[in-house]
């Protein structure tokens, strides 16, 4: 699907509904919707985004899903939300206050939905949203109630120092932790 620059610009500040349900194994959390995501209504919709390939390569899904198949995630115990709801062309358009408020709202959402894991796709966004300057990629000490938190690398194609293989490996570490009891039992 192709959009004109005017159509993408018109998607600015749109909200994209979560793909979520109670009790998920992993609730993935992006920074905020990009304009392509807002224009399509599908998370991680920009063609260069590596979220969907990493999810499949890590074993979360039996095949590579397209963004328009995002609802299928629920059948695998997975969901998607964002720290900040409004769409922008770039994450650097968000203010520190928006990240903090997004973190507060995300904590409320997690308390309501109670996923086993919250996986924030972007360690810098996690640091800003939860005022945790020392956070690194991987599992965090902090929890939100019973929900564990994992900071993932941002899957954007702009985050090129994380190769597709390295992304898949990190997502795979999360998958192993999130499904450990199910796989063992």
Automatic annotation (TrEMBL):
<dbReference type="InterPro" id="IPR015637">
    <property type="entry name" value="MUG/TDG"/>
</dbReference>
<keyword id="KW-0378">Hydrolase</keyword>
<keyword id="KW-0234">DNA repair</keyword>
<feature type="domain" description="Uracil-DNA glycosylase-like">
    <location>
        <begin position="17"/>
        <end position="183"/>
    </location>
</feature>
<dbReference type="Pfam" id="PF03167">
    <property type="entry name" value="UDG"/>
</dbReference>
<protein>
    <submittedName>
        <fullName>Mismatch-specific DNA-glycosylase</fullName>
    </submittedName>
</protein>
<dbReference type="InterPro" id="IPR036895">
    <property type="entry name" value="Uracil-DNA_glycosylase-like_sf"/>
</dbReference>
<dbReference type="InterPro" id="IPR005122">
    <property type="entry name" value="Uracil-DNA_glycosylase-like"/>
</dbReference>
<keyword id="KW-0227">DNA damage</keyword>
């Amino acid at each position: 699907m192709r959009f004109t620059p005017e159509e993408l610009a018109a998607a600015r500040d749109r909200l994209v509904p979560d793909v979520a349900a109670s009790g998920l194994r992993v609730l993935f959390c992006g920074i905020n919707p990009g304009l392509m995501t807002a224009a399509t209504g599908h998370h991680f919709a920009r063609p260069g985004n590596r979220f969907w390939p990493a999810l499949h390569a890590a074993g979360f899904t039996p095949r590579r899903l397209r963004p328009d198949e995002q609802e299928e995630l629920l059948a695998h115990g997975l969901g998607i939300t964002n720290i900040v709801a409004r769409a922008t062309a770039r994450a650097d358009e968000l203010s520190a206050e928006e990240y903090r408020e997004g973190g507060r709202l995300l904590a409320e959402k997690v308390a309501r939905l109670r996923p086993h894991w919250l996986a924030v796709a972007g360690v810098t966004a996690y640091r800003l949203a939860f005022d945790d300057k020392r956070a690194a990629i991987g599992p965090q000490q902090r929890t939100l109630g019973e929900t564990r938190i994992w900071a993932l690398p941002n899957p954007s194609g702009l985050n090129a120092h994380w190769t597709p293989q390295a992304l898949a490996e990190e997502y795979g570490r999360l998958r192993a932790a999130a499904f450990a009891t199910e796989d063992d039992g």
